[in-house]
Amino acid sequence: MVTAIVPAYNEEDYIVETLLALHAAGCFEEIIVVDDGSQDRTAELARSYAKLLRHPDNRGKGAAIATGLASTNSPLVCWVDADLGRSAIHVRHLLTPILEDQADMTIAQFPKPQRKDGFGIVTWTAGKGIYRLTGHKIGAPLSGQRAMRKEILSSVQHYPCGFGLEVGITVQVLRQGYRLKEVPLPLAHRATGRNWRGFVHRGREFKDVVKTLWELSRQG
């Protein structure tokens, strides 16, 4: 059994298209949407296409993922961002290396953007930090599209809050000696642009990533 976990916060414009794509992928016996305190119609729309779990308030992606994991017994799980739209069908390819025993966790690598709207500094910081803490080079350290054997998550001591989730999980899994493989996929999601909202988003992301790396460095 394979379960897709979709954390969602105010994603009414994308959630249905994403869920339809996951159904079309034909490999997920269970699709769970964790609505993280959305103030729009995300939960209402998702209810018809997935098992719906709801947080009464916004707790962050890490909490949403933890809620989804606690509600499934599937040995294989896949994390999928709610804004992938039609391209979500391609996340099925993350399962192949695991099923062929080539990896314990896979990470989707998005196509390189023609213009770096986020300037690349957050990705560079995350990748550099992971390398310093584990000795592994990761090309897509912030990618939220991941598949894994659920059993490996027993080595994860905590799920970092905010935008440090992916970095925190990656470091903890690699420190335990699990195999990680990146898979290039033609995925697309809502881009963060060069406007004030984009700058605020990148600022929060940078702060959370640095905080997570600092905490992990203190753990040794």
From TrEMBL:
PANTHER family: RFBJ PROTEIN, UNDECAPRENYL-PHOSPHATE 4-DEOXY-4-FORMAMIDO-L-ARABINOSE TRANSFERASE-RELATED. The lineage of its organism: Bacteria, Bacillati, Bacillota, Bacilli, Bacillales. It comes from the Bacteria. This is Glycosyltransferase 2-like domain-containing protein. CDD domains: DPM_DPG-synthase_like. Residues 4-153 form the Glycosyltransferase 2-like domain. It holds the Pfam family Glycos_transf_2.
